[in-house]
Specification:
The chain is mainly α and 156 residues long. It has 2 helices and no strands.
Length: 156
């Protein structure tokens, strides 16, 4: 019987060892499950962050495209304004040339009219003097002598 007791003790010891091993394995399995669940949660978080990053990248790409479109429009507008500016500069130069030309023409005409006025004034004075002298002579001369005197003046 002692052998039986010894076998029972041995069996109990063996069973205790098996229970301890099973408990250890169960604890290890629980730790591994907890680790797997934590990894699964991390993977889900990383997937969500990747999706969010993808959405942000898409928005950034759309914003970049819009910025490029806006830049192209603004560059086109700048080019149009440059052409307009060049045209306006050219028009302004033409206007300055026209003003200078018109001013020169007006100065020439002013000078011409001034000379003409002076010439006509001198002629008028001469005719007034001649008329005055003619009135003085007409009182003393015959009409035939007046015509001859006038012809002599014109000849000289």
């Amino acid at each position: 019987m002692e052998e039986y007791m010894e076998n029972m003790r041995s069996l109990r010891s063996y069973m205790n060892d098996l229970e301890d091993d099973a408990a250890k394995r169960s604890a290890e399995e629980q730790q591994q499950r907890t680790a797997i669940e934590a990894h699964d949660a991390d993977i889900a978080l990383v997937k969500a962050q990747a999706k969010q990053a993808s959405e942000v990248a898409g928005k950034l790409a759309a914003a970049r495209a819009q910025v490029r479109v806006d830049m192209a429009e603004k560059q086109s507008r700048i080019a149009t304004l440059d052409v307009e500016c060049a045209t306006l500069k050219q028009t302004l130069e033409f206007l300055h040339q026209e003003i200078a030309s018109t001013s020169a023409n007006l100065n020439e005409k002013r000078l011409f009219y001034r000379k003409t006025t002076e010439t006509l004034t001198v002629k008028l004075q001469e005719q007034q003097e001649w008329l005055g002298s003619l009135k003085n002579k007409s009182t003393t001369m015959e009409p035939h002598d007046l015509v001859v005197a006038r012809l002599d003046e014109l000849a000289s």
